[in-house]
Write a structure and sequence with these properties.
With 287 residues, this protein is mostly beta strands. 13% of the residues lie in helices and 54% in strands. The protein contains 2 helices and 14 strands; from the N terminus they run αβββββββαβββββββ. The protein starts with a helix and ends with a strand.
């Protein structure tokens, strides 16, 4: 008798369980159906918007057998200072509130102050909705800055070049890179960054585009030690706010391998010294 009752009871429990599962499945399926599969990325925020960031930069270099590591942590405000002008470019100010640096050379921690002193500086940038930087300048000046162009690498790590049209998840777009063009030789850097929209997801209250990028460069860059001739590659992972196009979180790792080529000013003899550089840029929006 007890066995005869157990099976109908079991069937009832299974039926109830299936109803509960179906109730959970249907909304989930609806949510999946509503997930965004494409988006239009534009750098555009209301005038006066202020975003607070924590920034971390690391540079590890081996030059002629000597290892050097530099770390720099910064508190940075990104201030959207004006609406777009007649060309479509809007003004953005990067304000470096606090900067802390350290240097490790040959395994020893050393007293060190970076040659370009960003703390207290404001870098003014004119930027297009697609993330193309039209121009930039250091405002009232940055101590130790030899050329305004020396700021480009710093600025580039704050923005992503967007495609001109709507992009679907899984699609890629390419940014052509040319730096330090010369009439008498190859440019300082030439290559491509290929971006891919991996997915669109929620991060807290924000809807973000998850973007990955891979870069390859040919380098012929002037450095204080001589001409850097080599190759570079980079991997980038970023989360970008769909409403505004600003970085929510970013990490970019750049690896450079090559030779520093220099001539002795007295003998005119050319020397080559191997160098390897790894740079890491991290940006994170603070809540």
């Amino acid at each position: 008798m007890s066995c005869a009752m157990r099976f109908p009871a079991a069937r009832t429990l299974v039926a109830c369980a299936l109803v509960c599962v179906m109730v959970q499945i249907v909304p989930a399926a609806s949510a999946r159906a509503e997930e965004k599969k494409s988006c239009t990325l534009l750098f555009s925020l209301p005038e006066g918007t202020v975003l607070h960031y924590k920034s971390f930069n690391q540079l590890d270099q081996n030059f002629s057998g000597t290892d050097v590591s530099m770390n720099q942590t910064s508190q940075v405000d990104m201030v959207h200072g004006s609406a777009p002008d007649s060309t479509g470019a809007a003004r953005v100010d990067l304000k470096y509130i606090e900067v802390k640096s350290s240097l490790l050379s040959g395994g020893r921690l050393m007293d060190w102050s970076p040659p370009i002193k960003l703390e207290g500086a404001t870098i003014r940038i004119m930027i297009m909705p697609n993330g193309d930087i039209v121009k930039f300048d250091p405002g009232r000046g940055v101590p130790g800055l030899q050329s305004v162009e020396d700021l480009r690498e710093i600025i580039d790590a704050w923005f992503i070049r967007f495609p001109e049209e709507e992009i679907a998840v899984g699609q890629s777009w390419t940014e052509e890179i040319v730096r330090e063009e010369r009439d008498d030789g190859p440019p300082g850097a030439k290559g491509q960054m290929v971006y891919t929209l991996k997915k669109i997801e929620k991060k807290g209250d924000l809807e973000v585009a998850v973007i990955e990028g891979k870069m390859k460069l040919e380098l012929n860059q002037d450095t204080p030690a001589g001409m850097l001739v080599g190759e570079g590659k980079a991997d980038l992972k970023a989360q970008v706010a769909l409403n505004g196009g600003y970085i929510v979180e970013l990490k970019e790792t750049i690896e450079i391998r090559g030779d520093i080529v220099a001539k002795d000013p007295l003998t005119d003899k050319e020397t080559k010294r191997e160098t390897a550089v790894t740079q890491i840029y991290e940006r994170k929006l603070q809540q």
